[in-house]
Specification:
- The protein has 403 residues and is an alpha/beta fold.
- It has three domains: 3-204, Alpha-Beta Complex (Spore Coat Polysaccharide Biosynthesis Protein SpsA, Chain A), CATH 3.90.550; 213-301; 312-402, no CATH class.
- It is 43% helix and 18% strand.
- It has 15 helices and twelve strands.
- It has helices at residues 16-24, 44-54, 68-78, 97-108, 129-134, 160-165, 177-189, 216-234, 244-263, 274-289, 292-301, 312-317, 330-337, 370-379, 388-402; strands at 3-9, 31-38, 58-63, 83-86, 92-93, 112-121, 124-127, 156-159, 193-204, 321-325, 344-347, 356-360.
- The strands form two sheets. Strands 1, 2, 3, 4, 5, 6, 7, 8 and 9 form a nine-stranded mixed β-sheet that branches. The chain has a three-stranded parallel β-sheet with strand order 11-10-12.
- The relative contact order is 0.08.
């Protein structure tokens, strides 16, 4: 058998059938699809059983709810194929993807393949630019720093015997477990890696997904995963000691950037007061270990924010943007809280405290990047002197053209 495709499922009734149909319709037929139902409470099990009755390539596995890591590990132990893929129950593969992966891995004798990635859903449709660089390479070095920007689990194909014989398994985490798994495999097994440009993985995004929520347990899980990645890499450079420090600095940069983009920029969506303090504490620890060059690179990446503030009271007293809304309502308020530049205040009466004041009617549809672009324009010597209303209009036109 050529491929074992491991599909962990928890309450996946909405998209599971579409995913299974996609896998079953692949031109490569020598496959098994191991569906691991992680204690779902919806109709997931009946969907799996229905497909298993119709096609013997579907292997139905049930486990009590233990998390996605346990489900994938369960699938690894049962896999019989020459190669293993991990596909989530709402994601898709492009036409002929498996056939193209098999041809590439056979011709290069690779142990691990990385293939093209497209995100879709929630108003998004785009390819991952870092992955697009890697997939052009017939051989990708284990110490290629671009791998640190590509933790997603489902755009990779593993040689099964190498993975199964290794001690590498998904750690017991419910968030950011894929990066810990992938980097442990890369740095302990030292596989031969190839890129496959003509095979496509399609990653479905959801507006309410885990990456759009912010809470203290999630931040702790992320921090645990990145600490694991750092320590694993720190112990693996015996064959290339001259590359070690630059690589470790890149991990610190990746860690900081993910904290800012996935958590800090969504701080108003936090479900607890503890989250912002945890983000600040970790950012301070990271910057204390950074070289000056890495700190400068971090600053460039968040130049719309400037100096981050890690207290909601401090943010309230020192906003960069002041927002006036004629008719405030819950829908518009949610759009404000979803903005990726969080240093703003909402002003009803009184004097605004921000460096720029924006005015809205309350019925507009806001691009979540609007405040970020406005902040960059206001901070720019080239545009910052313009009237606030003109900067706001320019940012809106720019984002409209970018769609």
């Amino acid at each position: 058998m050529r491929f074992s495709i491991i599909v962990p499922v928890y309450n996946g009734e909405e998209y599971l059938a579409q995913t299974l149909d996609c896998l079953l319709s692949q031109s490569e037929k020598d496959i098994e699809i191991i569906t691991v139902n992680d204690g779902s409470t919806d109709s997931t099990q009946s969907i799996i059983e229905g497909y298993a009755k119709k096609d013997s390539r579907i292997k139905a596995v049930y486990q009590e709810n233990a998390g996605v890591s346990a489900a994938r590990n369960n699938g690894i132990e049962r896999a019989c194929g020459e190669y293993i893929l991990f596909i989530d129950s709402d994601d898709l593969l492009g036409d002929g993807a498996l056939e193209k992966l098999y041809a590439a891995m056979q011709s290069t004798c690779a142990d691990l393949a990385i293939f093209r990635t497209q995100s879709f859903g929630a108003g998004v449709s785009q390819y991952n630019p870092i992955v697009d660089e890697l997939i052009k390479l017939e051989e990708i070095k284990c110490y290629d720093k671009r791998l640190l920007r590509n933790f997603i689990v489902s755009n990779k194909c593993y040689r099964a015997d190498l993975l199964k014989k290794s001690s590498v398994r998904f750690p017991p985490m419910r968030y950011s477990e894929d990066g810990a798994f992938f980097m442990q495999f890369v740095h302990t097994v030292k596989p031969k890696i190839t890129g496959v440009a003509d095979a496509l993985f399609m990653y479905r995004q959801h507006a309410g997904s885990v990456t759009h929520r912010v809470n203290a347990p999630l931040i702790r899980e992320f921090s645990k995963s990145m600490d694991f990645v750092y320590e694993t890499a720190n112990g693996s450079f015996e064959d290339a000691p001259e590359q070690k420090e630059a690589y470790l600095q890149e991990i610190l940069f990746k860690d900081y950037l993910a904290l800012m983009n996935e958590f800090y920029r969504r701080l108003w969506l936090a479900s607890d007061e503890e989250s912002l303090g945890l983000i600040g504490e970790r950012c301070n620890k990271l910057t204390a270990r950074m070289a000056d060059e890495t700190k400068a690179k971090c600053a460039r990446e968040i130049k719309d924010i400037g100096k981050p503030l890690f207290s909601k009271n401090e943010i309230a007293q020192n906003p960069f943007i002041s927002v006036r809304v004629k008719n405030i309502n819950d829908v518009f308020l949610n759009q404000l809280y979803a903005q990726s530049m969080p240093l703003f205040e909402i002003v009803s009466d009184g004097k605004p405290n921000g460096r720029i004041t924006l005015s809205f009617k309350g019925n507009e549809k806001l691009d979540p990047r609007l405040f970020k672009v406005i902040s960059l324009l206001k901070r720019s010597p080239k545009f910052g002197f313009l009237p606030d209303s003109l900067i706001q209009l320019g940012a809106q036109l720019f984002l409209k053209l970018k769609r």
